[in-house]
TrEMBL record:
Keywords: Cell membrane, Cytochrome c-type biogenesis, Membrane, Oxidoreductase, Signal, Transmembrane, Transmembrane helix. PANTHER family: THIOL:DISULFIDE INTERCHANGE PROTEIN DSBD. It comes from Igneacidithiobacillus copahuensis. This is Protein-disulfide reductase DsbD. Residues 1-16 form the signal peptide.
Length: 623
């Protein structure tokens, strides 16, 4: 029985990825800026500023002054924050404001004017990298007996892309995503009158988000809490007890969402990211393993006796406190969906500083997301059997579910084949406990044979997952994909990967792109905007275009790579023509030559496959 529930919950966990609306990226001048001034005599103060949600790369920042009679003293850029980029390695990045004080020297008389020039390059956290930018700030120096050299404000000069040529590309204008203004719509709504109605709108938006995959992992967590804490409760009080446990869990989640959201908007730091490192995820997975083993009856988890005595004055207060803490941890580590309502509330707080109204919107949004959890938890308390053999079976079911949740967390940090191996082990061991290999004497009853059949099916699926993991597979729902896409027989490798096939059509200008599209007329086309300095592009090369399913599906497409590594006038013209801030970006062009979709930022393998199937009508069966 436990594994039947696992069969139902496994697809849910596999699909429980964050729900992202199409992000709206800032123009380069608003995403990054460079400033310079003189605060003390002979001391130049320079600042690089990255907007919230963006970062600059330390090794891409350069600084110089003109004329050559002015010199900067020796300086070292401050240490940045280490960021691990898949497929690239660890790089130091700057977030928000980074300042540097540098003494000035000159030969002879101090010049009346000089200029500071800085080049810098960065990316959006959502997955778009911007081309190298160069900003020149002219400074006018005036000598004063009472003060240091002062700055006369002069407008900085920022390199901008030239007006692009549109020769032959009038049909290539990509569509604007329909959801592009959703975030701004929610932020603007909070600034208007009728705040009560706006807050109710956020509550309704939370209800809508509750039915997205990002809430699914919380369902088995809450259900397991209810199972573990109401089994000894009388039937008359079970529903009420389950309701209060569920409410404590939802309030812990909602309060944490609110606090972390307000702090993120005020400080510009996405604090939840702190809880996504391997150590924290590993620890949280271990907690769920410990809870699962207690469900199997290996031991009983109890609060220390001194604490139990104090909490006993408040009846079930200890249970409620545990549920509240678990709700808080779930909010921190499972993570909320970054959808338009949430982003709009954060944008409103950042713009206006109105923490009260923005925080209230976040709280009601989180409460709306928690309503279905409240209903599910209360219903679980009502329908659960009382203490006895059946209750032990139910607890074992949720023990398996908690192990599945632990594997789901580990899959964020483990390689795909490793996590698929863990799923295989869980399925096989569970199949054995279901009696897949019991003797005929033990399985005489109809129910015994039924559960043995379920166990055998689960055992076979576990073997399939194990075989897929050995072949490099990573998809729980398609464990044998490596054997299917590698050819007609096991071990036959594809002649070329999608990443290799991009090299056949590498273009660096609008003219070359136009010629490549004309040559591909009559075939659907995937256009990939790429740069060597773009870390998200390299990540897509490894994770997306290196995926065998993507390789197989895109074989009927013409793949064109637009290389904007040079960041020269031709590169800027390409980006400007397609209204892109930088790579990576993906265009899908129909066989008739019409652009049917434009996607900015990192695209995972499953997301890209879905877009290709929906927009171009290409699926994996078209081989």
């Amino acid at each position: 029985m436990g594994l039947l529930f696992l069969c139902l919950i496994t697809p849910t966990m596999a699909l429980a990825q964050p729900f992202f609306s199409q992000p709206v990226f800032l123009p380069p001048a608003k995403a990054f800026s460079f400033h310079a001034q003189i605060e003390q005599k002979h001391i130049l103060v320079v600042r690089w500023v990255a907007a919230p949600g963006y970062h600059l790369y330390r090794d891409r920042i350069h600084l110089e002054v003109t004329p050559d009679t002015v010199h900067l003293a020796s300086y070292t850029l401050p240490a940045g924050k280490w960021m691990n980029i898949p497929g690239v390695g660890r790089l130091q990045v700057y977030e928000r404001t980074t300042a540097l004080h540098i003494p000035l020297h000159w030969v002879g008389t101090p010049p009346a004017h000089f200029a500071v020039t800085s080049s810098y390059q960065g990316c959006a956290n959502a997955g778009v990298c911007y081309p190298l930018a160069t900003t020149t700030i002219p400074l006018a120096l005036t000598q004063s007996a009472a003060s240091a050299l002062s700055l006369s404000p002069v407008s900085p000069t920022v390199s901008a892309p030239p007006a692009p040529s549109t020769q032959g590309l009038n049909t290539m204008q990509p569509p604007v995503p329909a959801s592009a203004g959703a975030t701004a719509l929610f932020a603007t709504g909070l600034q208007g009158d009728g705040s009560i109605w706006i807050l109710l709108l956020f509550f309704a938006a939370g209800l809508g988000l509750a039915f997205t995959p990002c809430i699914f992992p919380m369902i088995p967590i809450l259900s397991s809490l209810v199972v573990g804490q109401v089994d000894s409760t009388s039937a008359r009080h079970a529903r009420r007890h389950a309701f209060w446990i569920s409410l404590a869990y939802v309030l812990g989640m909602a309060i944490t969402y609110t606090v972390m959201g307000v702090l993120a908007a005020v400080t510009g730091a996405y604090l939840q990211a702190v809880f996504q490192n391997p150590w924290v995820l590993g620890l949280f997975s271990a907690i769920f393993v410990v809870l699962a083993l207690s469900m199997f009856g290996f031991y009983e988890l109890q609060v220390p006796s001194a604490v139990q005595t104090r909490l006993s004055r408040y009846g079930k207060g200890g249970h409620f406190l545990g549920a509240w803490i678990m709700g808080m941890l779930s909010a921190l580590i499972v993570g909320p969906c970054i959808a338009a309502p949430l982003a709009g509330a954060l944008l409103f707080i950042a713009r206006t500083g109105n923490v009260v109204l923005g925080g209230a919107a976040l709280f009601l949004l989180a409460l709306g997301m928690g309503v279905p959890l409240l209903v599910i938890g209360t219903s679980a308390g009502h329908f659960l059997p009382r203490a006895g053999r059946w209750m032990d079976v139910v607890k074992a079911v949720f023990g398996v579910v908690l192990l599945g949740v632990a594997i789901w967390f580990l899959s964020r940090i483990l390689p795909g084949p490793a996590s698929l191996t863990l799923w295989a082990i869980l399925a096989i061991v569970s199949a054995v406990y279901l009696g897949a290999f019991r003797s005929a004497a033990v399985r005489d009853s109809g129910w015994g044979r039924f559960w043995q059949g379920i166990g055998l099916a689960l055992f076979a699926y576990g073997l399939a997952m194990g075989a897929g993991a050995l072949a490099g597979g990573r998809l729980v729902l398609e464990p044998l994909a490596p054997f299917v896409v590698h050819g007609e027989a096991i071990g036959v490798q594809p002649t070329k990967t999608a990443n290799q096939r991009f090299k056949r059509h590498m273009v660096t200008s609008l003219t070359q792109l136009h010629q490549a599209l004309l040559a591909a007329k009559g075939h659907p086309v995937l256009v990939d905007f790429w740069a060597k300095w773009c870390v998200e592009c390299q990540r897509m090369d490894v994770e997306t275009y290196g995926n065998p399913l993507v390789d197989q599906t895109t074989r009927s497409l013409v793949l064109i790579r637009v290389n904007v590594t040079a960041s020269d006038s031709a590169s800027r013209a390409l980006l400007h023509h397609f209204q892109l801030f930088g790579p990576p970006a993906t265009l899908l062009v129909s066989a008739s030559g019409r652009t049917v979709a434009k996607y900015e930022g990192y695209e995972g393998p499953q997301t890209l496959l879905q877009h290709v199937q929906q927009k171009l009508g290409i699926d994996r069966s078209n081989r």
